[in-house]
Specification:
Blueprint lengths: L2 H9 L2 H19 L2 H13 L4 H22 L1 H9 L10 H4 L7 H6 L15 E4 L9 E4 L1 H14 L13 E4 L15 E4 L4 E4 L6 H14 L3 E4 L1 H13 L9 E4 L6 H11 L3 E6 L6 E4 L5 E3 L4 E6 L12 E7 L10 E9 L12 E6 L6 E2 L5 E2 L12 E10 L2 E8 L5 H15 L3 E6 L14 E3 L8
Parallel strand pairs: 3-5, 3-6, 6-7, 7-8, 17-20, 18-19
Antiparallel strand pairs: 1-2, 4-5, 8-9, 9-10, 10-14, 11-12, 12-13, 13-14, 15-16, 17-18
Helix pairs in contact: 3-8, 4-5, 9-10, 10-11
The structure holds zinc ion (ZN).
Amino acid sequence: MNSVLQKLYWKSPYFVKCWLASLNSIKLDKQRHGPVFQKTFEQIAKREKWSPEQFFQYQSEQLQSLIAHAAAKVPYYRKLFSENRIDPESIKTHDDLQRLPVLEKEIIRADPKCLLDETLDIKKLMVGHTSGTTGTPLELYRDVKMNSIVWAYNEARFHAMADMRRRTNKSVSSFGHLVASPDRSKPPFWVYNRRWKQLYISSYHLSPEFLVSYIDKLRKFKADYLEAMPSTLYALARYILDNNIEPVPFKACFATAETLFDYQRDAIKKAFGCKTHDQYGCGEQVVFAAQCQHGSMHLSPEVGIVEVLDDNNNPVPIGQTGQLVCTSLINKVQPFIRYRVGDTGALQSEGCSCGSMLPVLKEIQGRIDDVLITRDGRRIGRLDPVFKGTRGIVEAQIVQDDYDKFRVRVVPSQAYTENDGKEIQLSLLARVGRAEVAIELVKRIERTSGGKFRAVVRNMVTAEDV
Ligand SMILES: [Zn+2]
């Protein structure tokens, strides 16, 4: 939406906003839920009980088709195959894939359109961006077909983990939608899409003075599901717990787009009486995993081939942590082949007790957005234990200004004491070694333009950001 339309929308009465939200969902249905969505959704269901061998076979077939497509229609790959004298037809399985170089983000930064299928009309494509802490965001393109496939996996392999059907079940959703003007100082901070039975709540007005009206609305709305970024789920949950308000029941919560920390998961469970299902993926659509009822992150092998590599780009044994390098099998608009995602993780050798045959991704950490980097090149992720045991924090952000210079920006609650600050300092020092750690008390922590909360901000460029 352009800024004039956005302002007009903000000034509209509530019922007009709701009507516009429903109207907009007709357009979104065309972009997401058409025949390709239906077909993909049904095909995914048929593969649910497949054996690892069947998935391997499927991946090999899809890989061959992807490589042929990339060699014929994507200039970058055409050149790559010819310069390296690789016959595209010789790439048939996962092992053959290793003959191709790892695709680094800087190649796409230098030429943002180099991976695009040259036969597509760029004006007809949807465009989005990656969200990195440093470096220029990458431009990501989709057509309606690919977009529908992505939404089908989201529904079949994420929402289905807790039996949710979007547009059938009543749900509350918050993903940085600009549903209310930033200047708005009284409810409603939400808008209702009747067609999808979905209430969109603003993630920009979650201050203590407004939270009471959010909780009140959630209680009256009586939705089955709540999907939002962890920082939003946690802000709502924390308010309920800190003020001893009766829990607002949901069947399940869904968390995406940010790292979900254990302390957030615990608070959400207490405040909403349900589990939170986490999801792992990225805008490049090279990998997709979502948490089942038993807490395992099940990969969708049809979305992408996941390799776990050491620092020399050699595969590590199963179970061992390494760099995630993934090949998308669903992105033919902009094929990402052996793409270094920037996160680390491991594949789990044993299956999950839930009975699903889908492989399990474990120990995803060092998401590029959420790591501190030390002078000796260590990536320190999983920083939630830094805040363990400190009750007086509404939210906090770690800012790394240099290798040995940190600030922790804390939004204190009434229960905050200086001792909390000291504990955070000590706990962070225990992870980063000799460094300067300052505590800054702030009123709020600003969100990114996409509404995301950033747990870690690095104000320095390291070798891997270049
Ligand atoms: Zn499972």
